[in-house]
TrEMBL record:
GO BP annotation list: methylation
Domain RNA 2-O ribose methyltransferase substrate binding span(s) in chain numbering: 31-101
Protein family according to the UniProt entry: Belongs to the class IV-like SAM-binding methyltransferase superfamily. RNA methyltransferase TrmH family.
One of the Pfam families matching this protein, by short name: SpoU_methylase
Stored PANTHER family: RRNA METHYLTRANSFERASE 3 (PTHR43191), RRNA METHYLTRANSFERASE 3, MITOCHONDRIAL (PTHR43191:SF2)
SMART domains assigned to the protein according to its UniProt record, in alphabetical order: SpoU_sub_bind (SM00967)
Record bears the keyword Transferase: yes
The protein, known as: RNA methyltransferase
Keywords (A to Z) from UniProt: Methyltransferase, Transferase
Record bears the keyword Methyltransferase: yes
A molecular function (GO) term: methyltransferase activity
């Protein structure tokens, strides 16, 4: 185990760059902050490149650290450099990013969530975590969506990225591929022809598109879906947060 005491150490500078999308894409890795996320990566066979922690944290989790993965002891000062939290827990892991793209024609099984230009990392992370809870097979981040491996999105995911497939792609291609293979693709949109989500029979194989927080789905996508759905609102609120709406729709549509 190597001990690093200087914030100017080259490894520390490299790990700091993982807080940015540019740094993550350049290295092909991202940073997990906190024991829960590190443990999820270990338990679910995440591709760990390194574990970094303060002496206290490494001692506390010594028995659970993976064999064959480099471990670095760091100072509290370095821990603060690696985290965007005011008081970080003090343990981190560098993990490989998943495959950036997968071909939709080879994936036509289970329930899938398509995210169309979702901008808020907290919303993205919450929707991935909810898709995991609802038993979805995967999530596709459409072009224009925020980077799902930013620190805020990762905290909202709570490790769910290790429980299902995540990938990035052109949602028009994914929608076309699913519908051509006999799978329903549902959009979420308020229009006269949209159906109440609670009137659609629960099923096991389909895709659900959630549109941008302000603009909704792209018009092109809305025209490609099997059917567009809405969530009936009984109270006086004009709309639901997109992550809340996604949760309602996913649990309504997914057969147990």
């Amino acid at each position: 185990m190597e001990t690093i005491k200087s914030t100017k150490n080259s490894r520390v500078k490299t790990w700091q760059k993982l807080q940015t999308k540019k740094g993550r894409l350049a290295s092909g890795t991202y940073l997990l902050d906190g024991w829960h996320l590190v443990q999820e990566a270990i338990t679910h066979d995440g591709k760990l490149h390194a574990v970094m922690g303060t002496a206290e944290q490494l001692a506390e989790h010594q028995e659970e650290l993976p064999l064959g993965v480099p471990v670095f002891e760091i100072t509290e000062e370095i821990a603060k450099k690696l985290s965007d939290l005011v008081t970080p827990q003090g343990i981190f892991a560098e993990v490989s990013l998943p495959n950036a793209t997968r071909e939709p024609q080879f994936i036509h099984d289970g329930a899938w969530l398509f995210l169309d230009a979702i901008q808020d990392p907290g919303n993205v992370g919450t929707m991935v975590r909810t898709a995991d809870a609802a038993g979805f097979a995967g999530v596709v981040f459409g072009y224009g969506s925020v980077d799902p491996y930013s620190p805020k999105a990762l905290r909202a995911m709570q490790g769910s990225q290790f429980h299902l497939t995540t990938t990035t792609g052109d949602l028009t291609d994914w929608t076309a591929s699913f519908t051509q293979n006999g799978m329903n693709v549902y959009g979420t949109q308020l229009d006269p022809e949209a159906a109440d989500v609670f009137t659609v029979p629960a099923q096991t194989q389909f895709a659900l598109i959630m549109g941008n927080e302000g603009q909704g789905m792209q018009p092109e996508l809305a025209q490609m879906t099997t059917k567009n759905l809405y969530i009936p609102i009984s109270g006086q609120a004009e709309s639901l947060n997109v992550a809340v709406a996604a949760g309602v729709a996913m649990f309504a549509l997914k057969a147990r």
